[in-house]
Structure formats: C-alpha cells, structure tokens
Design a protein that fits this description.
Shape: globular
Number of domains: 2
Distance between the termini: 45 Å
Helix content: 55-70%
Structural class: mainly alpha
Radius of gyration: 16 Å
CATH topology of the largest domain: Endonuclease III, domain 1
Number of strands: 0
Order of helices and strands: HHHHHHHHHH
Number of helices: 10
CATH class of the largest domain: Mainly Alpha
Strand content: under 5%
Amino acid sequence: MALHITQDADADALLTSDPLALVIGMVLDQQIPLERAFRAPLELRQRLGGRLDAGEIAAMDPDELAARFSAKPALHRFPASMAQRVQAVCALVAERHAGDASGLWSGAPDGETLVAGIAALPGFGPQKARIFVALLGKQLGVRPPGWREACAPFGEPGVAQSVADIDSPEALTRVRQAKQRMKAATRSGASKG
C-alpha cells in the first residue's frame, strides 16, 4: 500500500519504500506541520548524497549532521536537537537491526510489545508510539495480535485524528481540522483553570 501523508509524490514514495525515512519523519513530527516533518526525509536524503543509511547517519560527525539539518530551508524548527534525535534513532537501528528500520516492528509478538518498543525510541513517547503503531497497522498492514487495542484510540477505524488516518488530501484536511479542535479545547480548558 502506498502512503499519502505529505501529498508530495516523491516524498510519499520514499516514505512508502524506505522504513528509515518513515521513522525519521515520525521523529520530526512535532512542533512543525506534519507534511513538513514527513517531507524532511526526502530533503535529508538529498543533503546526504542521495541515500538514507542508518549506519552512515549514526557515524556522522554530530556537528556535520546538525549543519545538514540547519541548511536553508531548515529541516525542522529545532534542527540541531532533531539532528541529535535522528542520529540516536539511526544508531539504534544500525546496532540492533543491521540498519533495517523495519526491524523495529517486524516480528513483534503482539501490539503491546510493539508499542513499548517504539515508545523506547529516542524522540518517541507513549502517544507518538501509539500513533506510529496505528500508522503501521492501518496503512502498512503491520498488525500483530492486539495492535489496535495497544494503540488506542489511534487505531480505531473511521476516525481522523492523527497521521495514521491520512490517506488522501481530504483525510489530511479532516485530521488538520480535528487537531485544531483539540488545541482549541485544550486552550479553552486551560483558560478556565
């Protein structure tokens, strides 16, 4: 199945074909528009000479990687700290999975184990891990037993609440509107307190 997260054909093709690109996009998906976060792996690949390799990224001089992230246009609002997180994730992928990022989810015996493993990655927490597992399950067919329950509420079918639900331009609009409603509700609740 092809991903349609960014609505950019080249970026989405990379996310679909390269598990490391998908993981890097998810790492970057915070405090910037999600399309920008998930387009960044394509730009990073170009800045690294045309390939994303976990071992090579892990072995890079941290200042050089930060410079690649910071080059105009910067890959993230916080390029240096995001370069560190991406490098840490790449080091883990290189060390534990021989550079194959799909090893982060392949062979997971159940959804809880999968969510826990993803949550342990640098730059991931419990909610981001559940969203990523929902994305894997809904769009890439990674569905160990109990995956939907383990990533609740993001694994529910027919909702528009996260990147896991973006499969068209219309779905992107629905997810964006849902996020805006959640932020407004949070602000409203905070102003009452």
